[in-house]
What does this fold into?
Amino acid sequence: MPERVILCLGTKKGVFVAESSKTRKSFSLRGPFGAGVAVYSTLIDARGKPRLYASSCNAFFGMKILCSTDLGKKFGETKSAPAFPKEDGRALANIWSLETGDGDQELWCGVEPAALFRSGDRGDTWELVPGISNHEHARQWQPGNGGLCLHTILRDGKRTHLGISTGGHYLSEDGGSTYAASNKGIAAGFVPDPYPEYGQCVHKIARHKDAPGRLYLQNHGGFEQHPGIGVLRSDDYGRSWRSISKGLPSDFGFPIVVHPHDADTVYVMPLEVPARTSVGGAPAVWRSENGGDSWKRLARGLPKKESFFTVQRDGMAIDDLKSPALYFGTTTGQLWLGRDGGERWSCLFDSLPPIHCVKVAVV
It folds into this structure.
């Protein structure tokens, strides 16, 4: 029976692990591990004995993947990290996503510059996935403000969805052998043709495991001349997309999260442009309980004014207890907990390094 809530926090200065009982009354904190090095991706692998993974990427000390087999009491390094072949011409700059694969040892890794790697031995060796990494579009993708990153990996049997900034949404339906741009309805408000085949600045994609055909997407919105392009929904496995931004104070944001027990309930964190901070200096998470047809502001317990939070694309998560809690981390180092699906907020930690990534699991 699962008894512990584990948070794995990637920050500008290493990875931290927070732990609580299922009551979530208080959390203990461990870390930092990989101290002083930015961590943009973490993974809690609950297959069998839980393992925690964290990227650790530094231009001087190299690219590493950290691993803990004792819920974050200590971390070691895997035997290798993803690396491009010498003849490729590209060099790894960052690791943006870590996800579990098939069986009990397979891992997937999205990197910068945008490419995909696979490991069959828990991260000790890695191979480039050529179907997307050497795609005919790959050398034409351009970096967004955060770099040219493959940040989202969603797998469902033979189907895989990838999110790339700025590349867009790519879909494989043959187990990852081939990929096609699948961006019908996803706009790029920063180019003359706002609906190109590819090149969109997709910020994050999410779905519910029991409704694989339904996907939600946080796009790069915030364009007066192209209103409503920031928050989208697909009902046909990502082949086409439509706006669900109506009712939000801003369609710009980074994370998007789906309720673990209800595919119709989705959460976003709207931000103002160009500052990319909380709308009106008053942070709030917004929730839809009808698949994006309407939205409700959730801010009880959050600061009411003069608080300019930024929450990055992997900075918000939700646990899967009966009454789930939301968590988000800010680039000013606060970690917030929203009980009852975000109805009541409290600050767990207020002085961490800038937070890039929040992952949660009940183990």
